[in-house]
UniProtKB/TrEMBL annotation, chains A, B:
Domain Acyl-CoA oxidase/dehydrogenase middle stretches: 161-271
SUPFAM superfamilies per UniProt: Acyl-CoA dehydrogenase C-terminal domain-like (SSF47203), Acyl-CoA dehydrogenase NM domain-like (SSF56645)
Lineage start: Bacteria, Pseudomonadati, Pseudomonadota, Alphaproteobacteria, Sphingomonadales
Family: Belongs to the acyl-CoA dehydrogenase family.
Cofactor: FAD
Provenance organism: Novosphingobium hassiacum
Alphabetically ordered keywords of this record: FAD, Flavoprotein, Oxidoreductase
Superkingdom to which the source organism belongs: Bacteria
PANTHER family reported in the protein's UniProt record: ACYL-COA DEHYDROGENASE, BROAD-SPECIFICITY LINEAR ACYL-COA DEHYDROGENASE FADE5
Domain (Acyl-CoA dehydrogenase/oxidase C-terminal) ranges: 287-449
Record-given protein name: Alkylation response protein AidB-like acyl-CoA dehydrogenase
C-alpha cells in the first residue's frame, strides 16, 4: 500500500493551529519562514514516502530479530536509517550549539508525524533519541552535552528511556535498579548500574553506532518511592578519549517481546551489570531523576499522541483507496442497477467521513499543542501551561482515535480487512500500543484531573474552554461541549473528591480533547475556506462533538458508582 | 488462562429475559423445565471449560494448517470435537424426527455461547452446521432430510455456507458459480456445480466424516441478480447406497487465509468442479436460493452476535484476574502508601465495570432475542416480528461491544496486554471478524432501517420502544433513550429519504440495542434482587445509556452531510 504524505493538511494545521507565522516572529525561530515550513514538510514527505513507507510491511511480517544478544532490524532498515541521518531529519529542533537546526518544535512534530505515518514502528527509534537529547540538554553537564548531544542530534547514535521494571510499571517509584558510586580507578565519580529493565524500545539494534541508554536507578540510601530515583546515562559502548565508541559496556539485551504489533520496533528486556561492570554517569542531581524524566515526557507524549494521528492517516488512505476501487452493489433505491464503488454507499461513506474527521481533528489538536509548546519555549507562561494541559488530552484522545480509525479501516474492507495480506489489520495491531505506552491513557487522564486541572485553581482549563465557547458561538455543538467541559472542570476543581475526579477522568479528557479539536477544525475551516475542510468540520460537529457530550454523564457519575460493587464481587 | 462458564448469569438471562418458564408452558417445549435448563447450562459449562477452553491458545498459535488440499485442525481439536458429538451438544434444538432434542432455541443459544466463550474459532464449526441443518430442514425434500439431517444433527458430519465469491461479497446477487442440470446417467436430476467460493468457514477440516456444503449457484438462463440464485447441497463425499460417505466429490479446498484472528477456524477458498465432476442436488425451488439462505440467517446472525458476548466474557475474565493479581501503586490520596491491586484504582475499576456492563447488557439482549425466536416458533406472530427486528441490533451491537471489551481488556493489562503470550491480544484479534462476517454491521443496520423498520409501517419498533419507555419510567436514562429511538424511528418511517435512513442506520441501531439491553438488565435486576446485577445495571444506565443518546445527532444528521464532500475529494 503506497503512502501519500498529507502535506497540505499538515501545512494548514501548522499555519492556523500552531500559528507558525506568529512563532516565527521571534528571533529565535525566525528561520521558520513559510518557505522553510514548506521545504521541511514536503521534504520529509518525499523522504518518508520514498524510503520508510516501502519498508512498512516487511517490518511487520519479518520484524526485528534477536539472536545471542544481537538485535537485527528488518531488511532495508539500516540503510533507510542511515539515509535519515545523512539528510539531517533528526536535527530539526535540536540545539544549534550541538549541530541541531534550532527550529520550532512544531516542525519537528511534522517530521515525526510524517515518518510515523510512513512507518510507525521504525519511527520510535528517532522518537526515543529525541527524548534522550532533551534529558541531556536540560539536565546534563556541559561535558556530558558535548560528549553525547552532537551524535544523538545527528542520529548517528540513538537513545533509549529505561523506566519500567517488572514490578514497576505505572508506578515508576517502585523501581529497584541500583547505582553504586565508584570511588577509585578509571571510573571514579561514575556509578555501577545493576538491574533489569523491560519494555525498552530499541534498547538494542544494528542501526546506530552507539546506543545511549538513559536509566532510572537508586543510589544507596536513597529515599523510597519516586523521590529516591536518579537518572544515569549508560552508553552501549564506552567512549574513548576522542569521544568515539570504544569498549563494550556491561549492558545486554536478553530478549525481545513477541508483540501484537509494531514488530519493526524491538521491545527489549535489558540487563544492566550482569558482570558488575556496567558503568554510568549521573545526569543532573541525585534523586532528581523523575523530574529529569518529566522533561522528556511532554514531547514524548506529544509524539505518541501523534502516532494516533499517523495510524489514522495511514488507515484512512488505505481504506479510501479500497473504497474507491471496490465495486459492489448498485446504489440503494437507484433505478440504475449498475454496481458502484462502495464509497457511494451511505454507510461506507459515513465510515470514511468519520475516519477523516477524527484524523484531521486529532491533527488539529496535535499542531495546536505543538504551537503552544513553541510559545512556551519563547517565554509565554500562559502558553506553556496550556501546552501542559493539552498534552494528556492529545496523548489519550489521539491514541484512542488511532485505534478507532484503524478498526474502521478494517470494516471498510469487509472480509478483506481481516486477511493479513491486505495490510489493514497491521494498522489495527500497531495502533493498539499507543494508548498504553508513555503513560497509559488512564495515567494521562489522571494527570489532567489531578495535576493540570490544578493549574491556577482550574483557571487554565476554564480560560481554554471559555475561549472555545466564545470563538465558537456560531457553532452551537462545539460551544455547548466547551461549556459542558468547563462545568465538569468546575465541579472537579471544587466539589468533587479525588476519587470522583479520577472516576470521571477518562471521559472528561475525551470531552476536552474533542472540544479543542472541534475549535481548531473550525479555525482551519474559516481560515482556509476550503470546501473539503468545511465539510469534514461540519461532520465533526454533527457527529463527533455530540458523542463527546454524551460522555458528560459518565464524567460526572462519581466514584460511588464504581465501588458499589465490592472488589470480590467485581473480580472474584 | 482458565475459563469459568458464566452459568449463573446465563440462567438468570434465560429465565428473565428469554422467559423460559413461559416458553416451556407450550407442549412443544415442555421438556425445558428448570431442571433441564440447569442441566444444560451447567453441563455445557463443564464440557466447554474442561475440553474446549484448554485448546484456545493452541488454536491461535498453531492454527489450522493446509497442505495439498487437506486441512488439519490444531492438536487436540479432533478429539475434542468427537467428544462434543458423543455428548450430543449439537443436537439441542435439532428436530426430534431426525435425532435432535427439539428443545428451545434459547437453550441451543446457551450451548453456543458457552462453547464460543471457551473457544470462539472452534465453535464456528457447530455454528455452520446448525445453518446447514436449518436450510435442509426448512427447504429440503423428505429424502434430503432423511439423508443429511441425522448425521448433521449428531455432528458426525459438518455443514458449510457458500455464498461469497471474489466479486460477490455483500452483493450476493453478483455470484457466478454455475449449476448445470444433469440429464442422463447415474446423477440424472442432479446438477454439475462449477465455481470458486471464498471465505468458507470450515470448508475443509479433519474433524467430521463428511462435510455438507450448501452452495449458492445459478442455473442456466436464471434471472440476473439475487432472483436467479438457487441453493445446492454438495457433499464432500458422495453418499453410497446406505447413506454413508463413499467416493470423493469434485470439490477442493485450494487454500486457507492468513487472518488477523480465529486461527483455529480454517477460512477456505473452495473450488467446485475443477474436473467438471462436482455433483450437487438442488434444495428447495429453482431461483429460491436466497430465500432459503435467509432462513439460516436469523440463527446464524444471533450466533454471531453472541460471539461478541463470548469474547467479551472471556476478555472480562482475563482482565479481572489480572487486575486482582497485579499490585501497583498505593491508592491515590490514601495515607496508606502500600501498593494495592490495580482493581482498586478508580480508572481500572471503571474499565472493568464498563466491560462487565457491556458483557451482561449484550447477554441480556441475546437471550431476550432468543426467547422471542422461541415464541415465534410457537406461533406468536408479534414475537416473530420482534425477533426479526432484534436480530440486526444484536448482531451489530453485540459484535461491536465484543471488540470494545477486548480492547479494554488489553488496556487493563497495560504493557502486558500488548505481549502476545498474555493472551489478551488474541481476544482483540479474534473479536474483529464478528462485525464483518454474516453480513457486516453496516448491512445489519441497513436491514434494520430498510426492512425491519417497515414492519407494520414502523409499528413493530414503536411498540418495542413504547414498552421500554413505559416499563422503565423509573429509570429516566433508559426511558429517554427509548423515546429518542422511537422519535428517530418515526422520522425514518415518515420523513427521511432512503439515503437519510441509511446514513443514520448504524448509530440508530446502536441506540436501539442499548435501549433493549438497558431494559432487560433492569428486568433482571428487579427479578433477581442481586446486588451485583443492580450495581452493574446502574453503571449501564449512567454511562452506557447516555453515550448511546449522544448518537442521536449522528443518527438524524442525514445523507447530505455525507455527500457534501464529493467522491473525488473524499477518496481521491
Amino acid at each position: 500500500m503506497s503512502f501519500t504524505p498529507p502535506t497540505a493538511d499538515q501545512i494548514l494545521a501548522i499555519k492556523v493551529s500552531a500559528g507558525i507565522d506568529d512563532i516565527a516572529q521571534a528571533e529565535r525561530f525566525a528561520a521558520a519562514t513559510p518557505d522553510m515550513v514548506e521545504a521541511i514538510v514536503e521534504g520529509i514527505g518525499a523522504f518518508a514516502a520514498g524510503e520508510w513507507a516501502p519498508l512498512h510491511r516487511a517490518g511487520d511480517q519479518i520484524g526485528a530479530k534477536w539472536k545471542d544478544g544481537v538485535v537485527t532490524m528488518p531488511p532495508g532498515y539500516v540503510a533507510a536509517y542511515k539515509d535519515f541521518v545523512a539528510q539531517g531529519w533528526g536535527s530539526i529542533a535540536g540545539p544549534q550549539a550541538f549541530g541541531g537546526q534550532g527550529l520550532p518544535f512544531t516542525l519537528a512534530t511534522a517530521v515525526m508525524e510524517t515518518l510515523g505515518a510512513a512507518n510507525m514502528g521504525f519511527t520510535l527509534l528517532p522518537i526515543l533519541t529525541v527524548g534522550a537529547i532533551e534529558a541531556i540538554d536540560h539536565h546534563g553537564s556541559d561535558a556530558q552535552k558535548a560528549l553525547y548531544l552532537p551524535k544523538l542530534i545527528s542520529g548517528e547514535w540513538s537513545g533509549t528511556m529505561n523506566l519500567t521494571e517488572p514490578q514497576a510499571g505505572s508506578d515508576v517509584g517502585a523501581l529497584r535498579t541500583t547505582a553504586t558510586p565508584i570511588v577509585d580507578g578509571p571510573h571514579a565519580g561514575k556509578y555501577r548500574i545493576a538491574g533489569t529493565k523491560i519494555y525498552i524500545t530499541f534498547g538494542e539494534h544494528d542501526g546506530a553506532e552507539n546506543i545511549i541508554h538513559l536509566v532510572l536507578a537508586r543510589t544507596p540510601g536513597a529515599p523510597e518511592g519516586s523521590r529516591g530515583i536518579s537518572l544515569f546515562v549508560v552508553p552501549k559502548f564506552h567512549l574513548d578519549a576522542d569521544g568515539n565508541p570504544g569498549e563494550r559496556n556491561d549492558v545486554q539485551c536478553v530478549s525481545i517481546e513477541h508483540k501484537l504489533g509494531i514488530h519493526a520496533s524491538p521491545t527489549c528486556v535489558m540487563s544492566y551489570g550482569d558482570n558488575a561492570e556496567c558503568i554510568g554517569e549521573m545526569i543532573g542531581h541525585e534523586n532528581g531523576g523523575l523530574r529529569a524524566m518529566f522533561t522528556m515526557m511532554n514531547s514524548a507524549r506529544i509524539n505518541v499522541g501523534s502516532q494516533g494521528v499517523q495510524i489514522a492517516e495511514r488507515a484512512l488512505q488505505q481504506a479510501s483507496a479500497y473504497a474507491r476501487d471496490r465495486i459492489q452493489s448498485a446504489r440503494a433505491g437507484s433505478p440504475d442497477k449498475t454496481p458502484v464503488s462502495i464509497v457511494e454507499h451511505p454507510d461506507v461513506r459515513r465510515m470514511l467521513m468519520r475516519m477523516r474527521a477524527l484524523t484531521e481533528g486529532s491533527r488539529a489538536l496535535l499542531y495546536y499543542t505543538a504551537g503552544q509548546v513553541d510559545r512556551g519555549t519563547l517565554g509565554d507562561g500562559a502558553a506553556q501551561m496550556r501546552a501542559e494541559l493539552l498534552v494528556p488530552m492529545l496523548k489519550a484522545w489521539g491514541t484512542d482515535i488511532g485505534c478507532e480509525v484503524a478498526s474502521l479501516g478494517i470494516q471498510v474492507h469487509g472480509g478483506m480487512g481481516f486477511v493479513e495480506e491486505t495490510g489493514a489489520a497491521q494498522h489495527y495491531r500497531d495502533a493498539r500500543i499507543a494508548p498504553i505506552y508513555e503513560g497509559t491513557n488512564g495515567i494521562q487522564a489522571a494527570d489532567l484531573v489531578t495535576r493540570k486541572l490544578g493549574y491556577e485553581n482550574g483557571g487554565v482549563l476554564q480560560a481554554l474552554m471559555a475561549q472555545i465557547a466564545s470563538e465558537m458561538e456560531d457553532v452551537p455543538e462545539v460551544a455547548a461541549l466547551a461549556k459542558d467541559a468547563a462545568a465538569i472542570g468546575q465541579w472537579m476543581s471544587t466539589t468533587a473528591s479525588l476519587d470522583d475526579k479520577l472516576a470521571g477522568s477518562v471521559p472528561f479528557t475525551t470531552m476536552c480533547a474533542v472540544a479543542v479539536a472541534g475549535w481548531q477544525l473550525g479555525r482551519q475551516s474559516r481560515a482556509s475556506g476550503l470546501h473539503a475542510k468545511t465539510a469534514v468540520t461540519k461532520f465533526f460537529n454533527r457527529v463527533i462533538v455530540p458523542e463527546a457530550r454524551g460522555l458528560g454523564s459518565s464524567a460526572m457519575s462519581g466514584a460511588a458508582l464504581l465501588y458499589d460493587l465490592d472488589t470480590d464481587a467485581l473480580v472474584g
